[in-house]
Amino acid sequence: QVQLVESGGGLVQPGGSLRLSCVASGSIDSFNYMAWYRQAPGKQRELVASITNGGSTNYADSVKGRFTISKDNAKNTVYLQMNSLKPEDTAVYYCYMQRYTWSNPYWGQGTQVTVSS
Questions:
Q1: Which run of H or E residues covers position 77?
Q2: What are the residues whose beta carbons fall under 8 Å from the beta carbon of 87, sequence distance 6 or more?
Q3: For the segment 50-92, what is each residue's pLDDT rounded down to a tens digit?
Q4: DSSP-based three-state secondary structure for 42
């Protein structure tokens, strides 16, 4: 069983930046798919960004050009660099990892990001 622990959330002003980290309790080498999701109050959880084991990335249209997902296998960590933050980015952000499409995914506990002046 792998545990995922997110950190880096907080309160930031519009236009500011945050970097979220997701540390896995074990090696992430075996995970083919890693992602960040977010859920705002009253809304469904949505995919923000994803990265494959090979390094291919994908982004939601709403964050393209502002967010960057990356990983450091040596540190068992996935990052989400968030720049030019907007109030609509306010949400709980969750880390997600899955080894194969048919395997059970792992979720972190979430970290709150609030963008407000």
A1: strand 77-82
A2: 14, 115, 116
A3: 999 999 999 999 999 999 999 999 999 999 999 999 999 999 9
A4: coil
Tell me if residue 6 falls in helix, strand or coil: strand
Closest to 38 measured CA to CA, from 101, 112, 115: 112
The answer to whether 23 and 108 have CB atoms below 8 angstroms apart is no
Alpha-carbon distance of 6 to 111, in angstroms, equals 6
Q: Are 77 and 15 in contact (CB under 8 A)?
A: no
- Is 104 within 8 Å of 1 (Cβ atoms)? no
Which residues, listed in sequence order, are joined to residue 82 by a DSSP beta bridge? Answer: 18, 67
Specify whether the CB–CB gap between 62 and 40 falls below 8 A: no
Closest to 94 in 3D by CA, of 18, 28, 34, 15: 34
Torsions phi, psi for 5 (to 5 deg): -125, 115
